[in-house]
Structures are given as C-alpha cells and as structure tokens.
C-alpha cells in the first residue's frame, strides 16, 4: 500500500514517508501553538509518548500487516508508549501546566523571549523530528521485508523487554518514593532522605534513562537484523536520542545538586552505568 504522498520527498510512496509527512504537519501545528501561547513544551511532552507508536502503526497498517518484523517492532513500541503515557498521566502530565519541570527551570534561566525562540527553532521541529528519527529502524525493517526473523530479532526483543521491565520498576519505585515524600511533607514530618537512593537507584542514578536508551538500541538492532548492515541512516536517531539524554541528565543533576547538599555524595558513589568496579 503506498504512502500518503502529500508532497514529494525521498521517501515518497513508502509507508515511513507518510510518517514523515505527519511529523512535518505536527511541526507546523507546534509552531502555531508556540506563536499563540508562547510555549509548546506541554504538547511536546504529550506527543513524546504518542508519536512513535503512531509512526510505527502507519508502517504496519500501510504495509498491510504483512511484515512480521514490523509487526513485532510496532507491538513493542505500543507497549513502550502505553507505559510512558500511564506514568505521565498519573503525574498530571495531561493537565494544564503539566509539562516537565525542567522546561520551567530553563525558561527561568534564559528568559521568556529566548525561550520563545528556543521553542520555534528547536523544541517544535527538533523534538518532533527526533521522535521520527529514533523510530526509523521500522522503515529499514519494511525495506528488507522479505528477510525472515532471525536470532538477532530474538535478542533484540528480549533486550527491549528487559529494559522495559527495568523502566517499569524504576517508575514505580520513584512514584512510591515521591508519594511518600508528599505525604510526609503534608503531615509536617522531617524528610531525612529528600531524593531516592534505594531499589534500582542504588545501582544507577538514572535507571529510566539507561533503560530508555537500551530499548531504542534494541529497536535499532531489529533494523540490523533485517538488512545485515550495522551502519545505516536509521541509526542516527539512536545517536541523537542518547546525546539528548546526556544533556538532560547533566541538567537534572545540576538542579538536584543545587537543591540537595548530599546529592554530590550520592553522585560520587553511584554511577549512571552500573558496571563492575564503578560503584564505590
């Protein structure tokens, strides 16, 4: 089944080309929202969980659900999106003012005018195109749709699910910690430990980010299995995603270090990647 073909581009006539067209339509809509409201960050946070499953579904649907590898990849990304949507919703992300707190910190630091231009130049196009890019391995799987599933697909699926389970556990541990902290504050009780250091957070400072990168690494491996090629353009999204997470981690830790005097000690003894010998 052909793509939507709203305009001519290198992926015209292909299912993932239709996903690109949808992505560009969303970019324009995000620009409009930014110009009207001065901020589109709330919508970016919401689209982060919704866009990747839609892009993969477009490939699966327009391909007639005839490609087993594409179907498997799509099912995994829908699972990923469901978890992220649930976790985002219970934290109030779909309510007005529910954007990630770091957007507010950034806006305060650089000022409203620069933040507006940041929305127009980077947040709207950059984030939406990044979502499209890190789901692009599904296009490689569609291109090589005659290749049967192999052992690397099995490895990829297991790695994805293990990282998914890790992120699910980390989410729940963080949620329970934050809810208990709010309860203690409301009751006027002393907060001895203001940030989480137990569970998965005992071994890595950022289990969710680590697992997130692991899931999209596994997603990229499906494309490697399909094509037999370790170096192709659909790996660019994984690289850019990991680069963005490095920046987010640095910003998060700078905020935490400013709020909590003991965070430096936790950072010194707990690595991000829990490899043997790194934890003190």
Task: Describe the secondary structure blueprint for this structure.
Layout: H1 15-37, H2 41-62, H3 68-90, H4 101-110, H5 112-134, H6 137-143, H7 151-186, H8 207-227, H9 236-259, H10 263-269
What would you say this structure looks like, in words?
With 280 residues, the protein is mainly α. The protein is 70% helix and 0% strand. The protein has helices at 15-37, 41-62, 68-90, 101-110, 112-134, 137-143, 151-186, 207-227, 236-259, 263-269.
Structural class estimated from helices and strands: mainly alpha
What series of H and E elements makes up the topology? HHHHHHHHHH
Percent of residues in helical segments? over 70%
Cα distance, first to last residue?
56 Å
* Counted beta strands: 0
**Total DSSP helices:** 10
Q: Uncertain segments of ≥5 residues (pLDDT<50)?
A: none
Shape: globular
Major pleated sheet? none
Q: What percentage of amino acids are in beta strands?
A: under 5%
pLDDT averaged residue by residue: 88
Please compute the radius of gyration using only Cα atoms.
20 Å
